[in-house]
Structures are given as C-alpha cells and as structure tokens.
C-alpha cells in the first residue's frame, strides 16, 4: 500500500489540474514552502540519524554531498522542475525524454528510503503534490500531444515506488541501501533548501510563508 501512495499523489494531482485548470499559483507556492520545510525537517529527524548509525561517517557524508551534486546536475536538464520551476519549450511531436529521464532519476532515488523508513513517505508525498501540479499545468498548457502528456505523467508516477521496490527486492540495490539513502538525503537537502530560499524572494517578509514553514517543521517533529 505504501508504494501506491506516490502513484496516487501524481495521478490525482494531474486529474485535479486537468479538471480545474487553475490560474492562480499563489497557493501552490505556499504548498511548496510547506513541503520544503516538511521534507527538510523529516530528513533531519528521520533519515540523517539512521544513515549515521554506520561507523564510517565520513563516507556517508561523501554520499550526501554526491546527492547534492547529482541533483544540481539533474537540474541542468529538468530546469528546476523538482522544486516548482518549468522553463522549457516542448515540441508538439516529440516526447520530452531529457526532462522525463532527469525527473525519473530524481524520483527513483527518492524512493529508496521508503523501503526502510515509513515516515519519510509523508515528506515525499507532500513534496510530490505541488511538483506534480506545476508539472501537470506545464504539460497541459504546452504544445505536447495529449498522448505524450498522459504517458509522461503515468510513467513518472511509477518511478518513486519503483525505487522503493528496487531497494527491497534487488540485491545489489539493497546491499547499498544505506549509501543510496545518503544520496537521497543529499537530493532532499538540495531540493528543500532551494524551495525555502526561493520562498523568500527579494528578501521580502511574507507572514503566510513563514507560518507554513514553521507548521511544516512542527508537524514533522511530532510524526
């Protein structure tokens, strides 16, 4: 059941966008800020203590840094879609393989910790919903064929559960689960901090975003 939740998060988000066709993205930005704080807090509360139970703490730190660098690299191709930015011009008759591969690799990695930590799934879900909404808005409003849009969303929704399944059932992946979780931590740290920094654009005080950030951290603490 836990592997089904990320699929539903993406598909339901797409369905809501397809039906309602939202114009105002202010509330989505608040949800992004909440998701960034929530995911960051869960990463500190749940994942970091787990991976640092190993003796070789310096190697774990290297994998976390590798995760940060990997996410920076992926964003050269996704253009920041993982934290709510879409700056691409899609061709009508071409499936966007580069965007799909970069987002899928991100989703596969974020699925690895699900196999050993049930709580982090909530952070992933809260992160996935606003990203899926923004991605759906972009794909629906682009020149992309409808069949490509549906294929993109359908396959993308499977990637996070697939990462968790690999971690549970593929011996090579499961044997390096701790290291791969450290890579996922790096990805989460980069994504969540970028979202939080962007929520304070121009260094202007925004009470609404401050409240949802505090709320996200508070809820994560009590889970």
Strand content: under 5%
Radius of gyration: 17 Å
User: Can you summarize the main beta sheet?
Assistant: none
Question: What structural class do helix, strand and pairing data support?
Answer: mainly alpha
What key attributes describe this structure?
223 residues; mainly alpha; 9 helices; 0% strand
How are the SSEs placed, and which strands pair?
Blueprint: H1 4-20, H2 26-51, H3 57-78, H4 97-111, H5 120-141, H6 146-169, H7 171-175, H8 177-198, H9 207-222
Question: Any overview of this molecule?
Answer:
The chain is mainly α. It has one domain. Helix content is 76%, strand content 0%. It is built from nine helices and no strands. The chain has helices spanning 4-20, 26-51, 57-78, 97-111, 120-141, 146-169, 171-175, 177-198, 207-222. Helix 1 (4-20) packs antiparallel against helix 6, helix 3 (57-78) crosses helix 8 and helix 4 (97-111) packs across helix 8. The protein is globular, with a radius of gyration of 17 Å. The model has no long low-confidence stretch (mean pLDDT 86).
In short:
The chain contains 9 helices and no strands. It has helices spanning 4-20, 26-51, 57-78, 97-111, 120-141, 146-169, 171-175, 177-198, 207-222. The radius of gyration is 17 Å and the shape is globular.
């Amino acid at each position: 059941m836990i592997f089904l939740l990320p699929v539903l998060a993406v598909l339901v988000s797409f369905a809501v966008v397809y039906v309602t066709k939202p114009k105002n993205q202010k509330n989505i930005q608040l949800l992004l800020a909440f998701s960034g704080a929530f995911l960051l807090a869960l990463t500190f509360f749940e994942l970091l203590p787990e991976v640092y139970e190993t003796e070789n703490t310096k190697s774990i730190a290297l994998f976390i840094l590798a995760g940060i660098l990997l996410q920076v690299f992926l964003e050269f191709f996704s253009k920041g879609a993982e934290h709510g930015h879409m700056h691409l011009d899609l061709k009508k008759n071409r499936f966007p393989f580069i965007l799909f591969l970069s987002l899928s690799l991100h989703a596969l990695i974020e699925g690895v910790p699900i196999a050993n930590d049930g709580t982090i799934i909530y952070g992933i879900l809260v992160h996935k919903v606003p990203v899926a909404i923004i991605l759906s808005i972009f794909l629906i409003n682009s020149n992309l064929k409808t069949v490509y849009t549906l294929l993109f969303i359908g396959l993308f929704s499977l990637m996070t559960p697939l990462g968790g399944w690999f971690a549970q059932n593929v011996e090579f992946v499961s044997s390096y689960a701790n290291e791969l979780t450290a890579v996922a931590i790096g990805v989460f740290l980069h994504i969540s901090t970028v979202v939080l920094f962007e929520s304070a654009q121009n260094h202007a005080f925004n009470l609404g975003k401050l409240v949802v950030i505090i709320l996200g951290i508070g809820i994560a603490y009590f889970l």
